Amino acid sequence: MNYKIALIRGDGIGPEVVEQAVLVMKAIGKKFGHTFTYEEILMGGCATDQVGKSYPDGTAERCKACDAVLLGAVGGPKWEGLSAQQRPEAALLAIRRDLGLYANLRPATLRPALTDACPLKKETAEKGIDLMMVRELTGGIYFGKRDRYDTQDRGVECTDLMAYSEKEIERIGRRAFELARLRRHKVASVDKANVLETSRLWRSVMHRLAEEYPDVAYSDVLVDNCAMQLVRDPGQFDVLVTENMFGDILSDEASMVTGSIGLLPSASIGDSAPGLYEPIHGSAPDIAGQDKANPIATILSVAMMFRYSFQLPDEATAIEAAVDGVLGEGWRTADMARMGESVVGTCQMGKLICQKL
Ligand code: NAD
User: Fold this and answer.
1) Which atom of ligand 1 sits closest to the CA of residue 335?
2) Whose CA is nearest to atom 34 of ligand 1?
3) Ligand 1 centroid distance, CA of 57 (Å)
4) Among 25, 38, 345, 354, which has the highest number of CB atoms less than 10 A from its own CB?
5) What's the pLDDT score for residue 316?
6) Is the confidence at residue 259, as pLDDT, over 80?
7) 224: pLDDT strictly greater than 80
């Protein structure tokens, strides 16, 4: 089978980590008999430099002509002085909007060889952490109407509107239940139904869906309790589904318990357009061009692409096993290394994973 992948290498360490992911896809193609063709897409600060726009015209259409999109990272100090609309990060919001990517999937998995890197108690880490955060990405307070006005007696006052429709909640909820069926058949829905009306609607839609998926164990968790449980006993969670702002905060908390930021992949998916796969880290300008970046988050993003866009679970599992194999032998990039461990660069880490495959 041939798959066409849009490659947005981006800025900073983006091109370095994407290059290693491409080599891993080559190794997978050889092992499983697939071919991959690439559409190189300029986006981010590098696009501003070359064509004057961080999100050049036609970017979304070119991505839509592909089966999936792999993104390195965009942004950096060089473009920080630009207006909010011109900044490379604006291109990220634009592509998510134009591709209709309403579901953000962020696994937080503690790789077995790295339990020492977990900041939680040893006995908590040893129980294992393997959860999937499903965050609603295009609704809620980040997209609601905002207002700022003067009052006579209280100075300036501002409002941010949080709105959710049944339709928006149902489509993200279905994603979570379907994902749970590919995992350990558990969904915990995070809300603040003791206070917020949007959360009460969220909860009622989730309860309706739960009846449609009797094979999935369902529970409600209040967001404040969830924040506590993520550091007390994250091993209890399989799929966590939540609205945009709660998900933004909780997914960062969940990623911290797994060690380095250089390890975590993500996917943003919609109903029809290609999914977008990217590491959760940024362009890391402090280490760009030095062969120091950890390519594993991007390589594991390719595994997510195989599993969720191409329905190739064996290929995804092979990549994850190769990563665990290399980490199990003690190889580390600098961000993960402890005293006495063998430190390798970006290219060598990619090469070791390809060899394992
Ligand atoms: P960052 O994730 O780029 O870096 C934070 C720290 O983590 C740095 O010390 C960096 O060296 C380290 N780090 C990140 N990825 C690493 C990797 N793969 N291997 C080893 N170390 C790694 O976050 P930041 O410094 O806040 O942002 C830098 C730029 O990236 C900014 O312009 C920001 O807007 C942009 N950004 C882009 C995205 C994206 O493209 N999706 C996401 C976040 C930030």
Assistant:
1) 20
2) 75
3) 26
4) 25
5) 97
6) no
7) yes
